[in-house]
Amino acid sequence: MRAAFFSPLPPTRSGIADYSQALLEPLKRHVEIEVFSDGGREFRPEGFDLALYQIGNNPYHDFVYEAALRHPGIAVMHESNVHHLIADITIKRGDWGAYLEEAAYNGGSTALEYARKVQALKAAPDYEGIPMTRRLLESAQALIVHSDFMRCEMRKQGFAGPIARIPHGAWIPEVDRLEYRQRLGLDERPVGHSASCAERPNSGRRWEPARDHPVPTWIWVHLHHEHMAERHPIPHGSS
pTM for this structure? Predict the structure, then answer.
């Protein structure tokens, strides 16, 4: 079997790019794969048994989405909403007509009326209210999702074809625990952590340890758009 694999790849700053890079090697043990990692190459579907499209909700997936509409195949739905992607390939390209058409196609006259307000700069796009998946779901031959939640979402959004749920893979590298503690400046006490994409740690109720348990060291890991991480020790008692 010969498959066309559409996805951004590293160094593209996309988690799906990293996922695809990790997936390709084991996948090649089972099928012959040709990778399309940008829109610069011509795709001839007659030379393949199937096309696999990794769909994400950001501009790095514009060529994947457009190819999936031109040449229907199997869409791997990493997101249940692609409104940001649609805005990128319409509004950001100056094609308001295409955006209005998509709004009407996905949400009817009410969505079209709201989209006209967006065009007039009187409102922001209704990113959460309209997932903008209808055209893709109508053209896809089958879907792959990674969770029961996504399978239910795709059914709710009207997809009636085959859906395969394949749990998201993960791997745990072998590391020297003591070496990493030393690198992070940690002692032998238990460690708690909080991960956030905000500008500061999430606020919440103060955590109080049980009297007979050691007080953990808390670490806040801040992730920002460069896919970098910053480590900020948080003194016990901070909220």
Answer: 0.75
